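COMPLEX REQUEST
Ligand: adenosine-5'-triphosphate
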Amino acid sequence: MTQHARTDLADTDLLPAVGAAPAVGDDGAVHTMQVRDVYKSFGSFAVMNGMSIDFTDNAITTVLGPSGTGKSVLLKHLVGLLEPDAGEILIFGRDIWDISENERYEIRKRFGVLFQDGALFGSMNLYDNTAFPLRKHTDKAEDEIEHIVMTRLKEVGLEQAVGKFPNEVSGGMRKRAGFARALVLNPDIVLFDEPDSGLDPVRTSLLCDLIMEMHAQHGGTYLVVTHDIRSARKVSDYVGLIWHGKVVHYGEADEAFASDDPFVRQFLAGDSAGPLGMD
Ligand SMILES: Nc1ncnc2c1ncn2[C@@H]1O[C@H](COP(=O)(O)OP(=O)(O)OP(=O)(O)O)[C@@H](O)[C@H]1O
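STATUS: Structure written out below.
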């Protein structure tokens, strides 16, 4: 298990100026990201059913769960795109639905999100896609933007492809460009929605290496949602398992992968035999 220090997180200037004091966890600390007893239904279909999780700061957590169990819905709650029916989403100890829209917008800027397909703008080349958040959210001059964008694109191995458009590059390159774009605002939190989807095993493995390298270099609280047990085994410091709208296990990855618990074992071994069924 590795944890990487992120010194600037301790800088309270980074925390959005919000009236109420931040909530502290059971250990008395303010956590980067907490889900507290969250319920969410779409019509009569309950997706989150009292879900709680305190993500470990400055570590890579992987959340695994069967299809349709609410992993993407969890990500959307964390970034403030969905509002819980009940419960709290605490970011830097602040309930993001107990603050103003402006404050929520400021908090959102502390996130980098890598969507499944990279979510690049088709009409912009990789350079402009990567520069987009800097142009939208900062007043940095173009030469400073160029420095940041080229540094990030180099880190993900795309410095030769800056002029290409998303439809001219491979799926793996689109994901790497999406990753570079997710990092340009130097986020405290990076969310990955199935970063391995649509990639072959070798490219998946290379992307996992990149996630670990970038985390080691920049720090931050990373959350990876995936189906791929091999990716989870490779990148995770911590693992969360979701089942029937709840987090049924959260802990250090090494322990989870060595667990005797039949549910955890079946889940992480991808076995058909065990307590997990198709329902
Ligand atoms: N906006 C929405 N309106 C109605 N139902 C929704 C909405 N968003 C998600 N759902 C439903 O919530 C359930 C959970 O969806 P979600 O995409 O979070 O699953 P997931 O665990 O990410 O699945 P997968 O691993 O297959 O991507 C699904 O049944 C989905 O149809």
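REMARKS: The two ends are 33 Å apart (CA to CA). The beta strands are 33-42, 45-54, 60-64, 86-91, 94-95, 111-114, 189-193, 221-225, 238-243, 246-252.
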